[in-house]
# Entry
Amino acid sequence: MIDTKKTAGQTIVLAYSGGLDTSVAVAWLRETYGFEVVTCTGNLGSVKDLAGIQRKAIQSGAKKAIVHDARETFVRFFLWPALQAGALYEGRYPLATALGRPLLAKLLVDAAREEGARYVAHGSTGKGNDQVRFDLAVGALAPELTVIAPLRSGMHMTREDEIDYAKARGIPVPVTKKSPYSVDENLWGRSIEAGVLEDPWGAPPRDVFQWTVDPDEAPAKPKEIVIGFREGIPVTLDGAAGDGVPLIEKLNALGGKHGVGRIDQIENRLVGIKSREIYEAPAAVILHLAHRALEDMVLSKESHRSKARMADEYADLIYNGLWFSAHHQDLAAFVRSTQRFVTGEIRVRLHRGTAAVVGRRSEHSLYSTALATYGKGDTFDHQAAEGFIGVFGLPLRNQSRTQALWGPDSEATLAIPKTVMTRGRTATKRP
Ligand code: ARG
# Structure
């Protein structure tokens, strides 16, 4: 338990979204622990009105409200490395929320140092992954800080309680109706959970989606785009060079218009719960697809295999809140090295909910038409194939001679018994 004698008059920096939960938390931290509250808000792509958020923080009782436009940092130090790593949690989730938390935690820690605060706070509940990500990131960056999560410990209020609490203190209460879902969003995607989505059999209702149209209602005509990469980082769209933030924004809009980027997933949370999540992540889905297609062309088979195994580990690490770990730095060094030749262009076709690679080219391509062709100009040594197969198949022939694994009397798994073979047999003879 926290000793209020120690906290009275101390500064706490609160990760502030501007929503009702964290606005109430400002007042609650003051009243419960006697803290002076400084709020810290980072725009990772979804915060439209930073000045408005600042005003609201002050109205809620904060002594100071810090805001950052952290979008470029987010793209350069979080999204691009995750893209290069091929990090998709359990094969699909591009990790938008999970990538945002360590950066928000870093902003929080920096603010705490500037303010000379020994406490930080965040608005995560006790049931999700986000609390873990905040706590671990703060612990890794500044183990001397104490983390308080009011919604997890102490500030147990229903939404109605929160509204009453806010009204009584002149804290602005949202005029819009509360979304029936829990939503988190940034440049890399929108994460939607709770409400009717908790029934895993129920198809997500229309109102879940805000970035993507229903694939049925997307244009009948496909749209083709070309994405250019330099060393694994997207740098051009249809030949025009652009910075990361606008490039991602454009792809989100384009993909969304064609119904691309919807993900409906049952995932394993770190806290041991399986949960049903809906994601909208058009840019992330398109970019992962294109990046992988380019790697298919330029990475050796071995690099490709190692990298695929590493990708799962990398995704787990991000999901589990271990961004600021030594292991991450080691994995990132491997990934960085693999990206030396990941330069080239990928053609992607967007059509009614799907994104498909239809063309690729690279100055470092390992694909050789002369070797691959079945037509004229073939340089592959067909004769040499015979010798290769002779050696590659040697152990199989050797084992067959001594162990007869697949013979008619074998009881080995998958061996087909003679009775089965004769049952389906027919034969005709030349008259
Ligand atoms: N399940 C996702 C994750 O753990 C998304 C969490 C979304 N958070 C939220 N407050 N809605 O990364």
